[in-house]
Structure prediction request, 777 residues.
Amino acid sequence: MKNYCSAWRIVLPTLLLAALSASAAPQLEVALGFAERFVPGTLTPSCVKIAGVDTFTGFLVLTQKVGNPWRGEAISRVEIPLTLAGGGKLERLIPIYDFTHPLAVSLLDQGEKVLAEVEIDLRSRMREEAFPLAVGVLPFPFADGLVAIDEEALPRLWPAYEAVSSLWVGHTAKGLPGNSWEAIGRWVSAGGTLVLFTGEDFYLLDSPVLRALLPLANPRLSLGENGVQILRGEKRPNVRTLLSREGDPLLFLRRYGAGAVYLVTTSAFNLEETDFKAIAAQITPARLIDLTYASADLLERTPLQRPAYLAAFLLVLACLVSYSLVVLRAKSKKRMLVLLLATSSILCLSSGFYTNRTKAVNSVYELKTSLYAQTSFGYVVDYYGLFATMDGTAEVKVRGQIPIIQELPRSLQQHSFDIDWVEGEGASLVLQRGERRYLRGFGAYQLPLAVVFTGDEEVRIENDLDEPLEEALLIVKGQAFSIGEVRPGEALYYLNNGVPLADAEMRKESFTSLFREFAERFCLADAVWLVGATEEEVRERYGTVRIKVRDIALYVVAGEEHE
Amino acid sequence: MNKHYNLVDSDSWQSFFSLVLFCGIALILSIPPARHVRLFDQISIFSGIPVYFYTYILFMGIIGLNLGAISARRGERGWMLFSLFGERLLLAQFLTLPYLLFERAAYPGKEGAFVLIFLYTYIVSFLCALTSRLIEEPTRRISAHGFLLKYSLFIVYYLAPLSILPPLSPLGAVASLLSGEQAGPLLLAYATPVLLALAILLLQNRQLRRDHSV
Prediction:
C-alpha cells in the first residue's frame, strides 16, 4: 500500500503537469474561402484563430504543394510574422493554386520550431469557376452553385471577391459592415457585378458607398402600382432600365468603372420566382479588369541591355593593331615590354569605362505595370512580368499585406515554380535562363489626385503625387484631350483639339497600349476622367543578381464637374 | 643573363598574337545577340555557354605548351626557367586583360569569379608549359613525337574529365567558377593543376639529376 501511495505521488503531479501543458499548447483553427468554398488560382480569404498562447512572437506559415508528378510540382509558401498577446484572430488573403494537396498551416516560433500545425483538405471545398454569392436572405435559389453567407462573413479586402461571379445582396438584419462595402465598391469598379435588392430593405443597406454605386441619384421609397415599396430616384447618365413590372421599373443597370451594378427596385420578398429567373437572366458575370496581355506584350518588347558588337570589334582591332605595332616598331626588347604594358593598360581603362552599368547585362528584367483607379473608391492592380537572362533568384517587392499570385502554366515540369512570400518583405522566386513569369498583385489605394472640370475649355488638376504625370489625357464625355505633363501641385490646364475616345493616343507606345486595353473594359464614356501615366527605370541588385525594373503606372481618376 | 632570356621575341609573339586574336573573336561571339526579350530564344548560337572563358583557358593552355617548347629549344633552365614562364604567362594574361574587363559586362556581379578564373588560368597554363618543357627537353628540337604526345595529353586533360568529374577539366572548372559552385568542386579544380605541376617539377628534377650524372 505504501508503495502504491509513493507511486501516485509521482504519477499524479506528472499527469497534472501533462494536462496543463496540453491545455497550454497552441491551437489553430482555420476557416477558408466563402462558406468554405474557393476557386483555385485566386486569392482566397482565410481566417486563422490562434488559441493557447500567451505572449508569442513567431510566424504563421501556409504551405501548399501544387501539381502532381505528371504535371510537375511546385511549392507555394506564405509566411506571416506574428506578435500576439493571448492568442488572436488573423484575417488574410492567401493564394491557393490547386486543390489536389491539402493546405498546411503551421505556427512557428522564432527558432522555426513548429508549435502547432493543421492540414486543410481543399478537394471538397473547390469550385472550378467563380460562383454567385448571396449575402442576406433571398427567398429563391436563383442560380446553380450559389453560395450563401452571412453579412458579417463578407471579406474586408476587395481581391477576395475574385472568386465571385456576382454578389447578390438580399434582406439583411443590420445592413453590410462599412469596410465590406468599401471592398465591394472597389471590386465593382475593378469589374465586379453587384445585384442589389432594395425596396423596404434600402434604408438598412443605405450608406455613402451604396449611394456612390447606385444607378439612381437622390433615392427615395414610394408605393408602386401593386402596392409594394419601390425605390425611385433620378437616373444617372448611362443607366439602362432592363426590366419593368406593371409600369414600374424593376431592374436598372449602371456600368460602374469596369463593373456593373444591377438595382432591383423592390425587396427580394416582393418578387415571384419567375421574376428572379428573369433578373438572373439579365446578369452578366464579373470579369475583373486585366492588363496581362498588354503587360506581357510590353515585356516581350523590352530592350535587352548589352555591350555593342561594334565596341567589342573596335577593342579587338585596337588590341591587335597596337600590340603588333609595338612589337614591329620597338627598337629594344625592354622598350617593347614597357610599351606593351602601357598599351594594354590604356585599353584596359577604355574597356572598363565603356562597360559601365548601362552596358552590363542584367540577370532579370522586371516589368511592373500598375493600374491606379480612383472612382469613389481607390485601388491598385499590379502586373509583374519577369524575364531571366541567366539562372538566379528574383526578388519581387510587393506593397501591403496582400500577397501576389502567379500565373501557373499547365505544365510545371520545365522550371521551378516555387514561390515564397513573406509579409512585409515581398516574394522571392527562382528563375531559370530564358524563363518568363507573370504575377498579379492587388491593393487598396487612395490616389492623391483631384480633377475639377470648370467649363468647356479648362480643368483644374491638383496633383499631390511625388512625381509628375509624364503624360495625361482628359476625357470629357467621350472626347479625349491631350494635356501633356501634369506637374505636382495645383494648376489649370486648357483643353483643345479633342479626339474621340477610340482614337485617343499617348506619346509613348507603352502608355497607349495599356490605356487601350484598359479603356476597352472601363466605362470612360460618361463624366470626366483624367488618365495619366508615368514610367521609371531602376536597377536593383540582390547578391550577384542584377534586376532592371521598368515600372509603368497608369492613373485613372474620376473628375468632378462644376459648370 | 644572356640574350635568349627575353620576355617577347618573334617566336613567342606568334603565340601571344594568336591568343589575342582568338580571344578577341570569342569576345565578340560572347555578346548576347538578342536586342529584345522576344528575340532571346530565337537567336541563341552560343547562348548560356561561356564561350569567351572556354577560348581563354584553351588558348592560355596552348600558349603554355608553346612557351614550354621554346624554352626547351633554347635550353633555358634553373630558377630562371620558372621565372620566365611566370613572366611570359603573366604578360599573355595582361595582353588579354582589356577583354576580361569588357567581358565583365556579360557577367555582372561576378568579379570575384573573374579573379579566381584569372588565377586558375595562370596555374593551368604554367602546368602546360612545364609539361611541354618536360616532353621536349630530351630532344631540344621540334619533334613529331613530342608534339603529338603533349597535344594528346592536353586534349585528354581538357576533355576527358568533363563526362566524369567536370571540375577536374579546365573547361569544367571555369564553368564551375562562373556558376559559383560549392567550395568542394572549386578546391578540386584548383588542386588538380597544382598537384600535377608539383609532380612534373619532381619528374623534371629527377631528369635533370639523371642528365648531370650521365
